[in-house]
Amino acid sequence: xxxxxxxxKDIDKVYKNDFEALKKVSLSIHDGEIxxxxxxxxAGKTTLIGIICGLVNASSxxxxxxxxDHIIQYRKARSVIGLVPQxxxxxxxxxxxxxxxxxxxLYGKQHSNALLKKTLEDLSLWxxxxxxxxxxxxxxxxxxxxxxxxxNEPKILFLDxxxxxxxxxxxxSMWELVATLxxxxxxxxxxxxxxxxxxxxxxxxxxxxxxxxxxxxxxSVLMSKLGSKKLIxxxxxxxxxxxxxxxxxxxxxxxxxxxxxxxxxxGGKTGITELLSKLKAANISVHDISTQETSLEEIFxxxxxxxxxxx
Amino acid sequence: xxxxxxxxxxxxxxxxxxxxxxxxLISPVLTTALYFIVFxxxxxxxxxxxxxxxxxxxxxxxxxxxxxxxxxxxxxSSGIYFPKFIxxxxxxxxxxxxxxxxxxxxxxxxxxRALIIGAIIYCVSIFFTRDATVAHPILAIVFSVLTAIxxxxxxxxxxxxxxxxxxxxxxxxxxxxxxxxxxxIFYSIDMLPSFWQKISLINPIVYMISGLRWSxxxxxxxxxxxxxxxxxxxxxxxxxxIAWIFRTGYRIKS
Lengths: 311, 254
Description:
Chain A is an alpha/beta fold. Chain A has ten helices and 14 strands.
């Protein structure tokens, strides 16, 4: 098993208005992985990132970054972190080059023309290097924000909703960049609303809701553990109702009685053979069968919905 | 110590000063030059000498000090407020910088800007008064540097405390400008009735102007040692308060 580059233990955060943003959050991030932190708005994702990066004071708990306590050994801890915030926090009056140069300087590192050029080229910003930030489009500003975080050559990169408001083409080029960074050994922790991106990119997924970590799993394990499949059965002749002999809460009739959808858990007994036998016994002819896997989005919605309705 | 980080903040703030020279350098110099023309050259000729110094010369240290402290305050307060306003404060809060390095970077930049303005105004005063005499130049520099640092620290406190542009402008307009005028720029506090003399001694700006005036002419309202002590105490108090603000995260961290 790979070592943990980030250890979060029992982090609590209570704001001055008594709002409890985080409740005893514990989380370990493996070195070199892409970890997706998913959660609805106000779940505590940005607060958690803020605490790790030194922007928010935790009420209690500890954070260890690459073996260094983030309060006592803050210099060593912060020197390995790069942060891409959710909002476009940029000085509009600085040029792109100045913005990136200052970002590196604050980390106590000597200016590097080679790194500046490479970062700007990787982000397709080289031709904009002398432009003021205020002259750039929203997508370009987002890339400048990523460039700032990369100028520190971080071991851990936090991407807080990095593709929010970004067009499809740019979003894909950003995820290519994320894949490149991962291949270089950078640990990436991202929060996103585009769950399909987490599904495509992440090695592990954590779901946070109401300040509590609900689940942390390998993506594949999460998908098989919580995921279900759908058996979509096309009927030869339309049915008005599902015959009583096969009625089940897992079965839904749709498409004007021409499609039966059967939802089942993966692994173990599925009940498909039994269902098909019952359909045959009920003289219902089948003309097409296909299966569909539950997406991470559906798992996420189910999980967060279940938790909110349990309250 | 993250010296590169500290100098990065310093250079960034100085670049901001030189990015808008009309607002940061020319405007305060022009305003002070108008005081020289109106109160020095015009009105001043009708006023007799004060403690053996012509009125035209008498107001020079006060005008330098007023420009110095108001500019230190506005440079530091806007230097910290602007990153708060546009969100870029995360850059220095998440960087491996100590509180001291963040405070020092901003303070030194604001103090430098104020001292540059102070030096320009001194040159302008020579043009109007045709007199460059400074009796105790080292002490003049000490009083100026200490005042610039203290008001830069004070400016940081205001910039962090302010949560709107209105509040940012509140202190300079409603408190600092009146205190400067009542601090003895244009008069000796000995000229005030005894009650108002005592009230004036609560005003820290009195000690700053008095200290610089003593450095220039060897005359002052307050003993220069008392002036130095009071400015040092004010600097220390501002330093302690800003250190507390950063330690607790008051209005700078959630």
